[in-house]
């Protein structure tokens, strides 16, 4: 009886961008972890805009809904603002992973994180309890999903190794750093 063949990896389509691709399917944890303080500031401002706008409209042109009508609608406006703010935060961070916007800080963070994982002997993108076939399904379903997230909220929450980049650069950099450490260690004795 023949062994099951290894599932085929469908390579992601490469977008022509001005900045380097870091990850075509970043994990949800990485997206929020790599977000810049300016992303949090912009998303916080956007989240506050909805309830503030509603409050201002109520002051300019009162709705006269009575005693209990304003609070539920204000809660709804706040919830809409929070969801919109999170969407903006996720979008700004993902655009840097995709290379759509300036991402030199994230490129450096990614290189440092992955090289450290190589040095420790850990899998680059984490270990997964999911079969390789289902990892591929998850990767194909969530790759570049941020571009359509305003219609269908879809996030990568599966650890897999299909991220659209050549991971050899991490191993080469780790080897260079380990060699430099060895040379520095032998030269100082």
Automatic annotation (TrEMBL):
Domain NADH-ubiquinone oxidoreductase 21kDa subunit C-terminal fungi: 111-181
InterPro entries: NADH-Q_oxidrdct_subunit, NADH-UbQ_OxRdtase_su21_C_fun, NADH-UbQ_OxRdtase_su21_N
Domain of life of the native organism: Eukaryota
Domain NADH-ubiquinone oxidoreductase 21kDa subunit N-terminal: 16-102
Regions that span the bilayer: none
Keywords: Ubiquinone
PANTHER family referenced in this protein's UniProt entry, alphabetically: NADH-UBIQUINONE OXIDOREDUCTASE 21KDA SUBUNIT N-TERMINAL DOMAIN-CONTAINING PROTEIN, OXIDOREDUCTASE 21 KDA SUBUNIT, PUTATIVE (AFU_ORTHOLOGUE AFUA_4G04750)-RELATED
Protein name: Putative NADH-ubiquinone oxidoreductase 21 kDa subunit
Naturally occurring in which organism (per UniProt): Aspergillus steynii IBT 23096
């Amino acid at each position: 009886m023949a062994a099951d063949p290894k599932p085929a990896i469908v390579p992601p389509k490469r977008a022509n961008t001005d900045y380097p691709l870091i990850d075509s399917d970043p994990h949800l944890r990485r997206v929020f972890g790599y977000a810049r303080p300016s992303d949090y500031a912009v998303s916080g401002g956007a989240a506050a805009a909805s309830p503030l706008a509603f409050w201002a409209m109520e002051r300019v042109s009162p709705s006269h809904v009575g005693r209990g009508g304003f609070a539920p609608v204000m809660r709804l406006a706040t919830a809409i603002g929070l969801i919109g703010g999170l969407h903006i935060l996720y979008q700004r961070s993902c655009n840097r992973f995709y290379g759509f916007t300036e991402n030199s800080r994230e490129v450096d963070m990614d290189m440092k994180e992955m090289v450290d994982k190589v040095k420790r002997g850990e899998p680059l993108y984490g270990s997964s309890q999911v079969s390789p076939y289902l990892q591929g399904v998850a990767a194909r379903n969530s790759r570049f999903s941020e571009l359509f997230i305003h219609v269908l909220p879809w996030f990568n929450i599966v650890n897999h190794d299909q991220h659209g980049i050549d991971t050899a650069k991490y191993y080469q950099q780790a080897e260079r750093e380990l060699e430099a450490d060895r040379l520095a260690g032998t030269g100082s004795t």
